[in-house]
Amino acid sequence: MYNVTHRGDTMSTIKDVAKLAHVSVATVSRVINQKGYVNIETRQLVLDAIEKLNYVPNELARSLFQKKSRIIAVMLPHLTAYYFAELLEYIETYTIDQNYRLMVCNSQDDPEKESKYLRIFDQYNIDGIILISNTHRIDDYKKLGIPIVEIDHKLGEDIPSIQSNNYQGGKLAANKLVSIGCRKIIHLRGPSDLVIVRERSNGFNSVLKENNIINFSYDLDFRAPSPTDIANVVKSNPDCDGIFCDSDYIAILAIQALKSSGRRIPEDVSVIGFDDIEIASVLTPKLTTISQPRKLISEYAVNALIKLINKEKLDPFHRNVDVKLIERDTTK
Amino acid sequence: MYNVTHRGDTMSTIKDVAKLAHVSVATVSRVINQKGYVNIETRQLVLDAIEKLNYVPNELARSLFQKKSRIIAVMLPHLTAYYFAELLEYIETYTIDQNYRLMVCNSQDDPEKESKYLRIFDQYNIDGIILISNTHRIDDYKKLGIPIVEIDHKLGEDIPSIQSNNYQGGKLAANKLVSIGCRKIIHLRGPSDLVIVRERSNGFNSVLKENNIINFSYDLDFRAPSPTDIANVVKSNPDCDGIFCDSDYIAILAIQALKSSGRRIPEDVSVIGFDDIEIASVLTPKLTTISQPRKLISEYAVNALIKLINKEKLDPFHRNVDVKLIERDTTK
DNA sequence: TTTATTTATGTAAATAGTTACATAAACACT
DNA sequence: AGTGTTTATGTAACTATTTACATAAATAAA
C-alpha cells in the first residue's frame, strides 16, 4: 500500500459511488451504462449517490478498456483561411453534438508534423479521423486501421470522401464569364498539383474550349498568393476581360491590381472568386463567387465518420456536392 | 480468461516488448521513461524490440495512472474570426511542440455548451486550459482544480492572464486621430459589457477629453456587426472626420458606408481599425489599425500554462502586452 | 414438487501502463 | 572478510472502468 501524490483528490470514482450506495462497482456500472439487470430501487440508490458525489465517470479508464476514446481528430492544412476555419467551426459543433470530442491537428502541410500526429492517433485510441490533407500519405493512414472520412480529396476508392463538385464550379464560372461576353479570360488558380485545382481547371477549360476561347492559367499558392505576381499578370494582360480566381482571397488581390491598373470592375473586367468567404459580400464591389456548401460538407463528414465508427454501412461512399454561383457586383 | 472482440489487435503492448526482449515490463517502462537503473545492453535489447514491434506506448493507460493526459483544452468563443483563428493556429503549434495535444472547445458564447465541456475536462484528466471566454463562470473553472491561463480577460487575481494593453490601444488610436486634426470623432466599438472594450474606450476617451473633443460611441456585436447600423451612424454624422473601430471587420464596413455616402478616405474621414487581420493590408485603401501581438500572446499562454502544469512559479502573473499602431492608407 | 428461466448482484479479471518495494549482484571502503 | 552503497531487475499493487462468470433468489413451467 503506497501512495503517489496526485492532484484532484476531490474527484470521486465509481468505488465511492458503490460504497455510498452499498452496492458493488459492477452494479454502478450497470446503472451508468443501462446494461444488464438492476433492481429499480437499487438503481435509484445508485443515482442518488452519483448525484450526491457529483460523480462523472472517468473517460480514460473507460477508453482504456473499450479501446475507444470518443475523440475524433480533424487534420487540416491550416486554420486561418476562412474556408478551413468555418469547416472547423461546423465540425466541432456536430462532433460535440454527437457526444464526441475534437482534437485539432494542424498539419501546416508539413509531412513531418502529420506523421507526428499519426502516432498520436494510436496512442489515444482515437475513434476516427476527418482528413483534409494535401500530402498523399494515404497508406500511413490506412495502416492505422482507424475510420477516416476525407474532405476535398479522394485519394482512394476505399476511403469515403466528400468534396465540392469542383468541375461543376469551374464550368459555372466559365459559363458566366462567356455569357457576359468575356473573350480574353485568365484563370488565377491554386497549385495545380492539387486534384481540386485540376478539376476546377478541367471544368473551366471545357467550357472555354467549346466557345473557342483560349485560357491562360497561373498557379498561385493558396496560403500566401503573391500580390506582385498577380499584379504582373494583370499588367501584362491589358486586354483581359474576365478573371476566374480559385479563392476569394486571390480575387480580392486581383481586384486591387486591376483597380490600380486603372481598370474598372465589372465594366472592363469581370471577376469571379471561389469559396464565398464572409467578407466577400461586404466589400465594394461585392464579389461574385462560387460558394461551397461548407455546412453540408462538415455535417456529412461528421455523420459519415460516426457511422463508420459504429460499423454502419455508408450508402454513397463518395459524395460530390453541388456548388453555387453567387452573382454579385464583380460580374456584368 | 475471456476475450472481448476489439479492433486493432495488431497494436503491440508493453508486454509484447517485454516478452521479445526477455525482460519484465518494469524494465521496458524504465527504458521508455529513462527512469531508474537499466543496464546499457538490456536497454538496447528493449529498444530493438520496440523498433521491431513498432511499439508506441498507449497514452491512455499512462494517463489513467498518472492522472495526466498531456491534453490541453482551448476554449474559444468562435473560430471563424481571424483573430481567434490565428490565436488557435499559434496555440496548436506551441502545444504540439511541447508534446501536448489540443482539444478545441468552441463555446460559441453559449454557457450551456461551455458547461458541457467543463465536465469533459474532468473526464479526460485534461492537464490545462487556455481560456478565452466572455461568460463569467470563473468559479466553475476554479472548482475543476485544473491549471488555467486566460487570454483577453482577467476575471480574477488568482488566475494568470495575458491580454493586449487595450487602454494603450485606445490611446494610440485617439492620439493619431487628434494629431491629424480630427475633431468630430466616432468610436464604433464592441459590446461595452466586455472588459477589453471598456478599456479601449477608457484609453480612447482619456485622450479625447484632454483635447476637449466629445466622443460618440456605438456598441456593435463583434461576431456580426450590423452593416445597416453602421451605415446609419455614418449618415447621421455627416461632419464626422475620424472613426475608431474595435475590429478591422467593423472598419471595413465603416469604409464601405463612408464610400457610399460619398465621403473620401482619408481626405474627409480617417479610419483606424483594431486587430490587423490579414486582409487589412491588402484592401484599398490599406487599413490603418492597432495590431495585437497574437503570436506573442499565444506563445506566452502555452508556455505559462505548461509551467503551471509543472508546478513552476509564474513570474509576472498577469501580463499586459504592447499593441502597435500600424499606419497605412486610411489615416491622413 | 422439481426443474428451468429470469432477475439481481457480486467477484475478479481485464484494459496498458507506472512505480514502490524486494531482492540480489557488483562494487567500494574499512 | 565484513559492511555499505550503487546498479540491475523483477513482482505485484495501483490507476478507473467494463464485463465474463458465479451465485442465488424469485418466478415460471412442467
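The domain at 166-292 of chain B is CATH 3.40.50.2300 (Rossmann fold).
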